[in-house]
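Section 3.1: Structural characterization of target chains.
Under the original work plan, the team committed to producing a structural model for every single-chain target entering the pipeline before any wet-lab resources were allocated. The record below documents one such target. The sequence was received from the expression subgroup and is listed exactly as submitted; it comprises 308 residues.
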Amino acid sequence: MKTIRIGTRGSRLALAQAEDVRSRLAALFPDTAFETVTIKTTGDKILDAPLSKIGDKGLFTKELEQELLAGTIDCAVHSMKDMPTKLPDGLGIVAVTERLDPRDVLVSKNGKKLSDFNAGDTIATSSLRRRAQIMALVPGIRVVDMRGNIITRMEKLQANAEIDGMILAHAGIARLGMDRVITEIIATEQVLPPVGQAALAIESRAGDRETNKYFTALNHEQTEKEISCERAFLARLEGGCQVPIAALCRMQGPSLHLSGLVASLDGNIIFRDRISGGPDEAEALGTKLAETLLEAGAQKILDEIYRC
C-alpha cells in the first residue's frame, strides 16, 4: 500500500489540523495510507520573544519546507496565515481547505466584553495587528505580549492577575473544541483578521502530479479565491509579522468583497478601505486595494516601520 507522509508542527492545534486533513484524505483514498510526521519549526523553538522581534520569513514553515524539498514528507499542512507570500523554488500551495470563522475572539476574566475594557486595563496578544487595532478601539489600554499554544496561553491568563483578557483566533479555538472559553466573538469592523486566517494551506512539491492529486481533492474553490485576493493584497504591501496589516475577503453571491487595513504600531493612524469585484479578478482586487491604501498614506507607515 502506498504511504503519503503529511508534515506538521507539533502543537496541539497543528496536530488537530493535520489529523483533519489526514482523515479526510483517508476517507477519499481508502487504498492509500496517510501518516503524519511532526517537525519542530523556528517559531516553536523561540517562545520568549515577540514574533516581530525574531523575523517573519517562514517562522512556522521553513523547516517543513526543507523536509518537503528533501523528500522526507510529501506535503505540509500549515495555517494559511503563517504562509509567506513568496515560497521556495520547487514548492507551491496545491490546496486550500474550506475556511472556518475568520474572526478573532476575546477570552476574558469575569465575562468582561471588549466594550467593558477601559484605559489602564490589560489585554494580551502576540500580534502587532491585534495590538494596533485594540489600542485604537480602547485608548489607554495596556497591551502585553503573550505567546505559546492555546492551552499555554489560557494557563498564563488565569495565572496572571494583572491580565484582564486575551485575543485569539476563533478557528483555532473551534478546531480544539474549546468554544466554551470564548467570552465574545469580535466583529471584523472592530478587529480585522490577518490574511488567510481560518483556512489551511497544503503545500507540496510543484510538478509532482502523482502525489498532488491526493491533496487537490481537498481544495475549496471559494476559499481559494478569497485567500488569493488577500495574499495579493499582502504581497503588494510586502508585509509580514513586523507590520500591522489585516485583510478579509468574502464571497457574497457572485462577487468578492475585500476589506484591508494598514496601521501604525500604536494604532494612532489606520488606513482602511474596501473593494469589490468578480472572482476572476481576485488577485487584481487585492493589488488594487493595497495600492489605494499606499497612495492614501500607508506607504509612510511602512517606510517608518522598516526604517526602525
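The two ends are 54 Å apart (CA to CA).
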